[in-house]
Amino acid sequence: MHWIALRWPPETVAAQEAPMPSIEALGWWALQFTPHVAWVDEALLLEVSACERLWGGRLGLMRELAGLNPMPDVPVQRVQGATSLVALARLRMFARGEPPPRDLPGGLPLDTLSAARDHLGVLSHLGCRTWGDVEKLPRGGLVRRFGPALRAALDVAHGRLPDSHEWLTLPDVFELKLELPALAEGAPELMWSANRLLAALQIWLRARQRGALALELQWTLDLKRLNGIDLPTHQQVTVRTATPTQDMAHLRRLLSERLALTTLSAPASWLRLRSVETAPWSGASTSFLPEDNRPGDRLHELVERLSARLGPQQVLRAVAQADHRPEKRQAWRPALQGDPPAAPAAATQPDALYPPWLLREPLRLDVRDGRPCYRGVLRRLAGPQRLEAGWWGAPGQGAEREERGHPAVRDYFIAESPEAGLVWIFRERSSDFLAEDAPRWFLQGLYA
Fold first, then answer.
1. Residue 289 three-state SS
2. I need a labelling partner for 37 at 20 to 30 A (CA). Which of 13, 303, 334, 423 fits?
3. Element containing residue 204 per DSSP (H, E)
4. pTM over 0.90, yes/no
């Protein structure tokens, strides 16, 4: 077996201003190299004997560990050993700046063995300074005097007993909680600590090969009552994306927008981030052509950010509906809301004839010399498309006519406005049920 021990110096981590990934996230990161990963005391141990050849050997694997460091600003200390205890002991010597002994494991200092730390005083009086000195003591007497743990640790170090650890596993759902370094009273303090959770989320998403669709950020209130009013135990915000994403910068902007609109009922002491919905991640595809890789936000990212800032009901999109009635062929829904279940297609003319922007209510047009006007006199280009049915009410008195059994009778045209471009208009047509002195014209939709 072959072991690698990793450690990020806590004094260097504490000097960094940016939040760092949590201990759980560092363990998830190491799972990309081997499935045998465990935290032992202050070190992250990896057993790599079965997979090191996939990384180009031991030297290549050590280079990968340094190159893919999740804390680029904090160099990772890394050493190797035949057993986990030998690797951990060498790591402790490396952290103190001491060179490793040539005799392994017998020459290792006794204070680098975790099982011997509680007995260093007694062992020192016996003249024991290294692992080899304790190994020479009578086995039975060593167990009776110091317990079986010290003897078992030496057997593991020499390979006489197998290494047994509780291996880390990747959870199916991301959920991570942390205690805030100080009570947070506003969105900036919450967002600063949320960055640490987002860093862990990115590691989890990459390990699971999934993209985030919905996240929930929840914080625990430190007070139960304020000004005589009972407070909830938690508050939370939820952000959603249109497509699966592993872009933490975009998720960070969405959370910042939502938190900026949220008022904390009381100072917060704990923070929790949970993945509400994820989807398989196919990876980001880019083009070799520089003109295709335009800078700036994508359209769906802009829509998501505006929805978080203004509210989902303030950013709408047009959704086509299968309906015979032109007024009902389009509905406006929140841009982040999913499409409704597909309805059976209506027996109407091809959708290419209809404009992408339909008015909620037809607009009555002025008529000059028998020609309708909308930002200038309209010039008819195509039509008429004749519709005659009693399923909808005509503008103005249409609803009353429908109640009396009169059908709506219309001729639709595509026309051109001098200022507005192409428009979709209709004319009320006389019929046996409806007689008008002069036909009325209405604007139904606009072409982009």
1. coil
2. 13
3. helix 187-208
4. no
